[in-house]
Design goal:
The structure is a homodimer. With about 600 residues, chain A is an alpha+beta fold. Chain A has 20 helices and 11 strands. In chain A, α1 packs across α10, α14 packs across α17 and α16 runs antiparallel to α17. Chain A is globular and about 80 Å long. Chains A and B meet through α9, α10, α11, α12 and α13 of A and α9, α10, α11, α12 and α13 of B. Chains A, B: GO terms for molecular function: flavin adenine dinucleotide binding; oxidoreductase activity, acting on the CH-CH group of donors. Chains A, B: InterPro entries: Acyl-CoA_dh-like_C_dom, Acyl-CoA_Oxase/DH_mid-dom, Acyl-CoA_Oxase/DH_mid-dom_sf, AcylCo_DH-like_C, AcylCo_DH/oxidase_C, AcylCoA_DH/ox_N, AcylCoA_DH/ox_N_sf, AcylCoA_DH/oxidase_NM_dom_sf.
């Protein structure tokens, strides 16, 4: 019943007109040959795969879910999932941005991320199977021994094996320092790992012949806390020297979670009973090794909500144009019909435009950030690499938390457009809301993201990274501010920039007195900075749209209207948020715990 | 796994200390004997029933759902539902606020509503079976013929039969003027009704021997639109003259909806194939007859979200005290444990206090409004009845929309406190979020409520009703404003009152130019006025708490802290909302429909 059309025009606008990725690619030797046509061809084919193969399985997969056979510990994914994954592998999609040394196509991450936006629109739960795999690939690529790389990377690149990240345990999610899984050194240099992991996405399934688990555990001599955690690679089937599969490793799925959404992704409880693994990176440095892929993973979660926002928007627009109900307050707009389409009602448009404005600015931010990731990895100039890394560090918690909070708001609005029909499964809208909800939780809850932003990314270096982003804004304001037709965008952007500067200074002073002040203000602060970033991108997009309006392409007219909507109806939220951010810690802490 | 304790202390505070219901009861002859002890005894027993009988079925009912036997058209409710309903009937609970003339106990509606808050905390979907019944009772009580009353009211009062409201059809939900179900007059004065209804809550089930459907349909000579709709009572089984059950009436359940939440309430597609009914009220005046029970129904939906907010809060608090994870940013608070309870983290408290502040102010508003309903019905002074009716009219859309939007925010926050554990079914939190979502949709979407408030309740009488409520606030501000210790509450209340006055005037002027301006501002406007109402109740509650602090009862200390939290962290949302309300229609309508 739902529909999905890959937003190729807007992706191309962001990639080529706004961010101009190929200009950056030319400066990176490994990507210098990637031109506009290549990028567009990949996205066009990727969009066909997402819409044609993965999207039709989204509702049926949600209804069917995954099934665990408790006697064999094997998990069956919903009908069609295995065949779709085989097509994914046959099409070479897993290898898009992987290292050519292991069979990858070596395309920039930003291209892969745009492909993932479409996969997530099509079916977030299915997409998590290859998505999680990518995290394991990145981690082994950065920290694996030559043997580990030779054993695992070609298979993860081709996609014939998938990977997982086994971090969480029942008593520790956010606080991995508490974890208890133990790794005993074996005479042959391997480790026997015992413990219980929970919430392991794609932890067990029938899509591939082998699953490569990356597992956090403690060595016998490990210091307590987060400095005593090591990382191991633990395959479901051990791998023989010739690359063939050996014995079944005792790492089993002990149960599947029944969840609010993403039903068709197997969220596994994993039981390790002396499972054999090898150490990745140095002993006790496991957390640091995991964190190399954290920025990409968090960007990936932002992309999930971007994808859901886009597909929810498309469906809500189609319904709002089709459904007739009541007359416009200002008089009939379709007098020949018994009622007007509900898109004539201002609040229906407000809900639709909220989703649209969040999707389009979110896309701009994601592409901008993903390109910075490529620069961080592949730019020849060390200064550019460092500056890019700093900006990625600043923007990552915003991408993760702001986009997923917005995705929750937007999918709920799009569902509301359907009235009662939005609440029933048939129309597919309520699934988008249920699926979107997990994105605010995993890969670090949005509260954790906000503490990361305000505490570690902003205050810890006295605002250096924030000021660097502020210079981007200031330059744009100076350039565009001379234009009469840009005043409506540049003025509120500059004004909000000033307010963020003041707010940051004030919060820094308070935090100096009591570090808990960071926790009191961080969530509101992140949302304010998120709007600053969105206002910057919306102003830049408006500038392009103004310049190209003469072309007669209605795309730019729509872009301009959406920009104006954003500044009129969404940005003003910051007025309240700045007040609550400033209202401090005391209203939260004054009440004794016993009085709750 | 979840827990629920009826909030008797806070209910008593609101009933007896804040609203002082028994003072009002004394002025109403039919309720003059209802004293504090009676009210408390009913709520104590009602709380036991809700927590002890209905609450344990909430998760299992959600997991099992309802089942339709397509051969018999009969619906089976989840295990335990029928037995719980039998206990409900045996306990005399359906008759609490019903007319003694038909076997009711004649208690004030406000007492029944407080009982319903607890039932909704315990199990919203179960509670909808008796809840819907109450709507049918009210409607027949107001508009039924003596024969209809004699036939149906005693059975609805005792609860041995339940009732439904059959309004919506596939092509019309909000716009009932479009409905197509037809009623053909029969020689005996009855009508044969044919058509299809959807989204009929409790439309078919196995809890009772008969179901009394109130059905909207068109007579053959009916004018088009909403002025041609009549109301009929159509029992599942026809009723013989002696009150015994006769033939099965051809009104069948043709299907059940698969919904996001409230799984255990049967949402039925009802097929009428010449079902026999009798006319309720006058021909073509069916909508008006239905609307007599709309205020109570909308208050009831607000109560549903109040109930969910309360139970979600209780569970999130328990988890936040129990779960240890990370250290407070300001240093360990439980140094003897490996980590601190998460309630030490300011943002966890912010999420908890948001739910708490919304629940407690929502309870105050609901009790206040329900008492006004009693006054509207039972006060001997016509001026009081009229003033009460006006205030109910003003507050009803706020109760419905503001409380259900807040319930969505609050249940989602409470779920977030659980991190990943909130997303899985086991802990029960995600169910509260799924169940809460419908409340923003049914009984008139929240957008419809906002149009009702701004267009019909405020602007249509030039703000007369709003001004009357404003006088309540002004009197309180004048009285309490002389106290030094009330400045922190009275000043922001008075300030917001001024802003609402200005905003209302401005929107009235704009709407005069273009009625669509109402639709552009209404949702933001309702939320601003909702905060004004909450600020008023929080200031009043703070005043009582200040005066009683010396008693040493920690209840008042907690009340005061929650009031301060509300003013510091929730009220400031109005700063942004006023701006968006003022930003007008153009940003919404400028974009041509084809560009969406």
């Amino acid at each position: 019943m739902p529909q999905y059309t890959p937003p190729l025009r807007d992706l191309q606008f962001v990639l080529h007109e706004l961010v101009q990725v190929t200009e950056s690619f030319k400066q990176m030797p490994v990507h210098a040959e990637v031109d506009v046509d290549t990028v567009n061809a990949v996205l066009e084919e990727g969009g066909k795969f997402a819409a044609g193969v993965v999207f039709p399985l989204n509702q049926s997969g949600d209804a069917e879910g995954c099934t665990l056979d408790r006697s064999t510990h094997e998990v069956r994914t919903p009908a069609g999932y295995k065949a779709a994954y085989a097509q994914y592998v046959d099409g070479g999609w897993p290898s898009l941005s992987c290292d050519p040394a292991y069979g990858g196509q070596g395309l920039p991450h930003v291209v892969n991320q745009c492909f993932y936006e479409m996969l997530n629109s099509a079916n977030q739960a299915w997409t998590m199977y290859p998505g999680l795999s990518h995290g394991a690939y990145e981690c082994l690529h950065a920290h694996g021994t030559p043997e580990q790389k030779a054993t695992y990377l070609p298979k993860l690149t081709s996609g014939v094996w998938t990977g997982t990240m086994c971090l969480t345990e029942p008593h520790c999610g956010t606080d991995l320092g508490l974890l208890r899984t133990r790794a005993e050194p074996q005479p042959d240099g391997s480790y026997a790992i015992t413990g219980a992991k929970i919430f392991i996405s794609a932890g067990e399934h029938d899509l591939t012949e082998n699953i490569v688990h990356l597992v956090l555990a403690r060595l016998p001599d490990a210091p307590v806390g987060s400095k005593g955690i090591s990382l191991f690679v633990v395959p479901k089937f051990l791998v023989n020297a010739d690359g063939s599969l050996g014995a079944r490793n005792p790492i089993h799925c002990g149960g599947l979670e029944h969840k609010m959404g993403i039903h068709s992704n197997a969220t596994a409880q994993m039981v390790l009973e002396g499972a054999i693994g090898t150490l990745v990176g140095e002993p006790h440095k496991g957390l640091a090794a995991m964190f190399v892929m954290m920025n990409a993973a968090r960007l990936g979660v932002g992309m999930q909500s971007l994808g859901l926002t886009e597909v929810a928007y498309q469906n809500a627009v189609a319904y709002a144009k089709d459904r007739i109900q009541m007359r416009a307050l200002s008089g009939p707009k379709n007098p020949d019909k018994p009622a007007d389409s509900i898109i004539v009602h201002p609040d229906v448009r407000k809900m639709l435009l909220t989703a649209r404005a969040y999707a389009e600015a979110g896309r701009a931010l994601c592409v901008h950030t993903a390109l910075l990731l490529d620069q961080e990895l592949s730019h020849p100039d060390e200064d550019v690499r460092r500056a890019s890394a700093d900006e990625v560090a600043l923007l990552t918690p915003i991408v993760k938390a702001f986009l997923t909070d917005n995705g929750w708001i937007a999918t709920s609005h799009c569902m509301q457009v359907f009235g009662g029909h939005g609440y029933i499964r048939e129309w597919g809208m309520e699934q988008y809301v249920r699926d979107a909800r997990i994105n605010m939780i995993y890969e670090g809850t949005n509260t954790i993201q906000s503490l990361d932003l305000l505490g570690r990314k902003v205050l810890a270096d006295n605002g250096k990274k924030l000021k660097a982003f502020g210079r981007r804004i200031a330059e744009f304001v100076e350039d565009a501010g001379v234009r009469e037709d840009m005043q409506e965008f540049v003025n509120p952007l500059a004004d909000l920039g000033d307010k963020v500067t003041k707010l940051t200074t004030e919060l820094g002073m308070k935090a100096f007195g009591n570090p808990d002040e960071v926790g009191a203000a961080a969530v509101d602060y992140l949302r304010v900075v998120g709007h600053l970033v969105f206002a910057y991108f919306w102003a830049r997009m408006a500038l392009i749209a103004l310049d190209k309006q003469a072309s007669g392409d209605a795309f730019y007219t729509a872009k301009l209207h959406t920009a104006r909507f954003y500044f009129a109806k969404l940005l003003p939220e910051t007025a309240g948020l700045i007040r609550t951010a400033r209202s401090g810690l005391n209203p939260l802490m004054a009440m004794d715990e016993s009085l709750f």
